[in-house]
């Protein structure tokens, strides 16, 4: 199978569509939330503390300091909970979920539209062959 050329019309349209997605409200909200998180001294300090505790936890596990590692795990759980409960972080996480939802819907629409068109082109009959051996109805 030959590689698809960079100037293929479908790829050109895909790039245009990607630019359109970049201009969506979901992406704009995500970028704004991301910028707030990056510029927040409170958030960044908490992230630094979490990273430090994670490194301590790795060392404790390496030297089999089981009790200390458990204590650090509890501290890390608490620190992560505190970080995730900050409104600015919740907004950032929600914006990630919104983008993921948008992309999943887009993927579903494309897949559904393409499969409907293929089904029509092939007369409505799908050829269900095994991807491994090529036999019909096989489940190897």
UniProtKB/TrEMBL annotation:
Gene3D superfamilies from the UniProt entry: YheA/YmcA-like
InterPro entries xref list: Bact_com_dev_regulator (IPR052767), Biofilm_formation_YmcA (IPR016783), Com_YlbF (IPR010368), YheA/YmcA-like_dom_sf (IPR023378)
Origin: domain of life: Bacteria
Signal peptide as annotated in the record: none
Protein's recorded name: YlbF family regulator
């Amino acid at each position: 199978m030959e590689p698809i050329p960079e100037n293929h019309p479908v790829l050109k349209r895909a790039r245009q569509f990607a630019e359109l997605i970049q201009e969506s409200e979901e992406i704009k909200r995500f970028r704004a939330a991301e910028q707030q998180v990056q510029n927040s001294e409170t958030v960044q300090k908490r992230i630094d503390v979490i990273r430090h505790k994670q490194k301590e936890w790795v060392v404790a596990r390496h030297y089999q300091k089981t009790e200390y590692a458990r204590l650090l795990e509890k501290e890390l759980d608490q620190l992560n909970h505190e970080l995730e409960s900050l409104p600015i972080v919740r907004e950032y996480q929600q914006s990630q979920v919104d983008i993921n939802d948008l992309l999943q819907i887009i993927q579903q629409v494309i897949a559904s539209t393409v499969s409907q068109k293929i089904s029509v082109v092939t007369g409505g009959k799908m050829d269900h062959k095994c991807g491994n051996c090529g036999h019909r109805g096989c489940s190897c």
